[in-house]
Amino acid sequence: MKTLTLEDLDRLYKPASKLVRDKVLDHVEAHGRAFIGLSPFCVVSSAGPDGTIDVSPRGGEPGFVHVSEDGRHLFLPDRPGNNRLDTLRNLLGGPGRIGLMFMIPGFDDVFRVNGRAEATDDADLLASFEEFGKLPRIVVRVAVEEAFLHCPKAIMRARLWEPEAQVPRERLPSGAQMIFDQLQLGKPPISDEQIIESYKTQL
Asked: What is the mean pLDDT of the chain?
């Protein structure tokens, strides 16, 4: 198998068009603000000090990520999770590089933001993110370096929102059962329904 080089990429792919290059902005403008305001879900990527990469989902009510008035900063609340803190350890221990990909149910377009991040537990800022009757532990502040709409081809290929493309949940065991199988722990001590109910209290 041949390992490709950068020169091979230039041979195999056409150059990006001027529109594709020019659409990358250094701030979140009106359309980006509206997109983020409708988005209940984003994927966050981060890089650690040793080059470790993490990709993690984040979700909340539409607009759970806030945009500053000038569009040059995003504010991402950190909600309860599994306490691995992979993203936060990468951001605070590494170069602070972060990428976010926002999605809206039913939309094939994606909105992306790249930048540098820092974290704060400022009480006034935390109070502005109350959701589900709870405050986040910290808020990640992202200085926007790149903001742009990503073409819808990947979502269209995946048919992500099409009802006939949905996979019945019973095609796979529950997440808990899969983890117990992977670790050869047998059957989870509580039912799937109990696990889901416990998650609801932690939102």
From this structure: 95
Cβ proximity of 40 and 62 under 8 Å: yes
**pLDDT tens, 82-115?**
899 999 999 999 999 999 999 999 999 999 999 9
Task: Please choose, from the candidates 149, 55, 136, the residue with its C-alpha nearest in 3D space to the C-alpha of residue 102.
Answer: 149
Q: Is the pLDDT of residue 198 over 80?
A: yes
- Spans of all domains in the chain: 20-158, 167-201
Contact predicate 35/104, CB 8 Å: yes
From CA 118, how far away is CA 96, in angstroms rounded? 7
The structure's pTM equals 0.93
| 201 CB-near residues (< 8 Å, 6+ apart) | none
20-158: CATH superfamily: Electron Transport, Fmn-binding Protein; Chain A (2.30.110.10)
The two three-digit tokens of residue 164, written as one number: 């006939």
Q: Which helix (H) or strand (E) holds 198?
A: helix 192-201
φ, ψ at 102 (rounded to 5°):
-95, 140
Query: Would you say 78 and 91 are in contact if contact means Cβ atoms under 8 Å apart?
Result: no
Residue 33 has pLDDT above 80, yes or no: yes
Q: How far apart are CA 195 and CA 191, in angstroms?
A: 6
